[in-house]
Design a protein that fits this description.
16 helices; ClpP/crotonase-like_dom_sf; 2-enoyl-CoA Hydratase, Chain A, domain 1; HIBYL-CoA-H
């Protein structure tokens, strides 16, 4: 079986094994909530490309390593401390990270064999990027899904501009702007998950995939499906009505005004309080991304996101980047007091928002030009 596992470069942060027809990838960085590093992205890409061409491997499953005595995490996103360091150092590996991550996201969405994402626990940011393209997205009652990038002065990337835009009504705008974490029932209802398997069934499911007889892709899928149960009740219709009423407004300022006018509605007050802590500039970029995402293919969205993430770090330089400042406040100094510029939505310059959507590359030189 060794010929089925190519050389890996992540120093054990990705574990690979083959059981019968099934290739298993374990994200093995549990103390960092399995956050993705560039070597992990490279290993996942190498494995998937190799297994796509290997007749012996008929399906792939991806899961996160657990932490003894602690809540599980499938993948909490990208390595944001690396982003901060690389931005200040002018390290070209920062650009490589996003180019290669978005290529991996595209590969997963178009993978020619069943790809099963076992989304136990925290599934955020980059974790959504490596799970939303799965043929079978498996959730349990510990699953917490979110695209929380606006909290660090970024935008929902890894295809988020596309897959959030596919959610019903204006759920995509709400999830993108607030970064709100949702549970299994809501995720399945809104198209961000497929099936629910109770957490008590999870050890047996993983053991079956890892050690049980897996002679065919159909058997792999059946191993999951025989344990599927009804997900807990999703959000009430009243929540969807609120989301559409407020987050369907034509502009960011109008969304905030709508929430502010809701009076004693606790849901609206909480949403407004959340948005008041986000970068006004990057919320404006995020809203525009999701609304453009409804008219884009996945490949077009990933190319646009590659433009946006370049600008997030370079348009103003690292010293004035909202993203660098957001990461500083959350993960470096941990003062949770980002100094956003501008500080209010009314001060956001539409021309600066528009500048994010101008590609820094001509089409023939775009780093993702060949995505189909």
């Amino acid at each position: 079986m060794t010929d089925l596992i190519p050389p890996l470069v992540s120093d054990g942060q990705i574990l690979a094994e083959v059981n019968g027809c099934l290739g298993l990838i374990t994200l093995n960085r549990p103390q960092a909530l399995n956050a993705l590093s560039l070597p992990m992205i490279r290993d996942m890409t190498a494995l998937l490309r190799h297994w796509a061409q290997a007749p012996q491997v008929q399906a792939v499953a991806v899961l996160g390593a657990g932490r003894e005595g602690k809540p599980p995490a499938f993948c909490a996103g990208g390595d944001i401390r690396f982003f901060h360091q690389a931005a200040h150092a002018g390290d070209p590996a920062l650009g490589d990270f996003f180019t290669e991550e978005y290529r991996l996201n595209h590969l997963i969405h178009h993978f020619p064999k069943p790809y099963v994402a076992l989304m136990d626990g925290i599934v955020m940011g980059g974790g959504m990027g490596i799970s939303q393209g799965a043929k079978l997205r498996v959730l349990n009652e510990r699953s917490k899904l979110a695209m929380p990038e606006t909290g660090i002065g970024l935008f929902p990337d890894v295809g988020g501009g596309w897959f959030l835009a596919q959610c019903p009504g204006h759920v995509g705008e709400w999830l993108a702007l607030t970064g709100h974490a949702i549970a299994a029932g809501d995720a399945i209802e809104w198209g961000l998950g497929d099936v629910f398997v109770r957490a008590e069934q999870w050890p047996a499911l993983v053991d079956d995939l890892r050690h049980g007889d897996q002679p065919s892709a159909e058997h792999v899928v059946a191993t999951v499906m025989e344990r599927v149960d009804l997900a807990p009740v999703s959000a009430p219709k009243a929540t969807l009505d609120r989301i559409d009423r407020h987050f369907g407004q034509p502009s960011l300022a109008a969304i905030l005004d709508s929430l502010a006018a809701a009076g004693d509605d606790a849901w609206a007050r909480e949403a407004l309080a959340t948005l008041s802590r986000r970068s006004p500039l990057m919320m404006a970029v995020t809203l525009e991304l999701v609304r453009r995402g409804r008219r884009l293919s996945l490949a077009e969205d990933l190319r646009l996101e590659r433009d946006l993430v370049h600008h997030a770090f370079h348009l103003r330089g690292a010293a004035r980047s909202e993203t660098v400042e957001g990461i500083r406040a959350l993960a470096v100094d941990k003062d949770h007091a980002p100094r956003w510029s501008p500080a209010s939505v009314t001060e956001v310059d539409p021309a600066e928002v528009a500048a994010f959507f101008k590609s820094p590359w001509p089409p023939e030189q775009h780093p993702l030009k060949d995505l189909a």
